[in-house]
Amino acid sequence: MQRFLDLGVLAGEGLWSRLIETFLSVHIAKTSTVSVAIDRTGWGHYNLLMVSLIWRKRAIPVAWIRLDKLGSTNHDEQTTVLSNALSYLADYTVVVLGDREFCSVDLARWLGEQNAYFCLRLKASTLIQTTDDSWCSLSALGLTPGTQVFFNQVSVTKTKGFGEGRVVGKWKRRYRGFAPDEPWFILTNLNSLDEAIKSYQKRFSIEQMFRDWKSGGYCLESCRLEGKRFMTMVLLVAIAYLCATTQGQRLKHKALQHYIARPESIQGTHKRHSAFHIGLAAHRWIPFWFSCQQHVQTLMMLNRNKIADYLRGLKAIDAVLATL
Question: If you ran DSSP here, which 8-state letter would residue 71 be given?
Answer without folding.
Answer: S
